[in-house]
Design goal:
It contains 20 helices and no strands. It is mostly helical. The longest helix is centred in the first third of the chain and has 35 residues. The radius of gyration is 22 Å and the shape is globular. It starts with a helix and ends with a helix.
Length: 445
């Protein structure tokens, strides 16, 4: 049995351990990931001390790079949510659009809001508006639910500062601004195509109300905005300011211009800090004395996000420490790895992790840690390797994914309805994203 085969066998066993820990033993995913990391380390002969060091290095290394920006992003998103700013963005976009394109506007609103706000929160914010849009258009609710599911999932998966794309630039060592520009462009195209295709298959009778809906969706009409809610322009400020700062460095590097001030402002910590301060500023009027409480609640909820992200980094680092990634890369180097083969391997590994573990964060981050050894083998820009990993990470979300249950339960769907909405929507985004990566890789053959 070859070294790569043996390590792959222990990788499969460690995934089974993680699944049993989470599903059967009902342990927190963080604990399951640490147990899986230990099994992987001991099984491959890495040894106890080296395994523990790899777990700590993986956790600390990843969170050292992106922990503070993630925490700040959670605060920013919470302030935007509670102040009414997120609702203002969504309602403005829908109202300014003709009836023919209002479903696309609703999906684009979900896209924008989900850049700083996590998927499940975006979904909760927009469900009442989705119902109103459905009533206005006299369209079945699955059209509007599909619009926000696809828009929120696309941005959350591919556009920084959410954890996965934010980690990509650190793990694969390339400019975060490039990740934002390429990720946002690919995400928008993927969402636009996915919306169009999804609406078309609904037109063709894809949805079966009797089998796909468990109950009549009973949601109250859209509530009034908080007093003093920020305007559309002010609500967009916390979204645009970090983007502007991050892109400053990308643009200056492209022009061959170096500046310490630009490097400082464009760092992910400072960019997200400025965006969060802007969120504080625009929320003052509507939240008044509650702003500290809202921010503290956001900090509390960010803990599990940071732990799962860090534990995913630990698992990926243990896999790297076993030599699996290097052995795999060397075997590819021996046979002459093409850029096309590299993106397909990245996508395939991420799909396996996604289906098995459920978490898109863990699937993407684990795969990116493995694929980091491949960047030196090709002239293909690392952003496309990152996108392939992220595409696999969103590919097949099903019953072991918390996002699946958020959409299914809040929409009044059956499991079959959830698969037709959340799973199919994610699969569309995944297919279009990996197609972009394949096309890009062909230019480097």
């Amino acid at each position: 049995m070859s070294e790569v085969t043996l390590v792959f066998l222990w990788l499969a066993i460690s995934i089974i351990v993680i699944l049993v820990s989470i599903i059967k033993l009902k342990l927190n995913p963080v604990i399951g990931l640490i147990l899986g990391s230990l099994v992987m380390g001991f099984g491959t002969g890495l040894g106890g001390v080296a395994t523990i060091k790899a777990i700590g290095a993986g956790f600390g290394g990843l969170l050292g790079a992106i922990g503070i920006p993630i925490g700040l992003g959670v605060i920013l998103g919470k302030l935007l949510e509670v102040s009414g700013g997120a609702r203002v963005i969504a309602e403005t976009l829908v109202k300014k659009t003709s009836e023919k394109y209002s479903l696309y506007a609703l999906g684009f609103a979900a896209f924008l809001i989900s850049i700083p706000v996590f998927f499940d929160i975006t979904f909760i914010i927009l469900i009442p508006l989705a119902i109103e849009v459905s009533r206005t258009l006299k369209k079945p609710v699955p059209y509007a639910i599909g619009a926000i599911t696809i828009g929120a999932a696309g941005a959350h998966t591919l556009v920084p500062p959410t954890p996965n794309p934010l980690a990509a630039a650190s793990i694969l060592n390339f400019d975060l601004g490039v990740m934002f520009l390429v990720g946002a462009l690919v995400a928008f195209v993927a969402c636009a195509v996915s919306w169009f295709v999804y609406f078309k298959i609904l037109d063709k009778g894809f949805w079966n109300k009797e089998n796909d809906e468990a109950e009549v969706l009973d949601i109250q009409e859209v509530s009034d905005l908080p007093n003093g809610a920020p305007s559309f322009g002010l609500s967009m400020l916390p979204l645009l300011l970090p983007v502007f700062c991050i892109l400053l460095n990308t643009i200056s590097n492209a022009m061959g211009f170096e500046s310490r001030l630009i490097s400082f402002l464009s760092s992910r910590v400072i960019a997200m800090l400025l965006g969060t301060l802007a969120a504080y500023l625009i929320s003052q009027k509507s939240l008044k004395g509650k702003i500290d409480k809202v921010a503290n609640e956001a900090v509390a909820t960010s803990g599990i996000v940071l732990l799962i992200t860090g534990a995913g980094g630990s698992f990926g680092t243990v896999i790297k420490a076993t030599g699996f990634a290097d052995a795999l890369a060397n075997s590819f180097n021996t046979v002459g790895a093409s850029p096309l083969l590299i993106v397909l391997v990245a996508f395939g590994l991420a799909v396996v992790f996604r289906i098995a573990l459920g978490s898109g964060t863990v699937a993407s981050i684990t795969t990116m840690n493995i694929m980091a050894s491949f960047t030196a083998l090709t002239t293909l820009h690392p952003v496309f390797i990152a996108l392939a990993c992220l595409a696999g990470g969103i590919s097949i979300g099903h019953i072991n994914d918390s996002g699946f249950w958020v959409v299914t339960n809040l929409s009044g769907y059956t499991v079959r309805g959830g698969l037709k909405s959340y799973t199919i929507g994610g699969a569309f985004i995944s297919i279009i994203t990996i197609t972009v990566c394949i096309v890009a890789s062909l230019f480097y053959l």
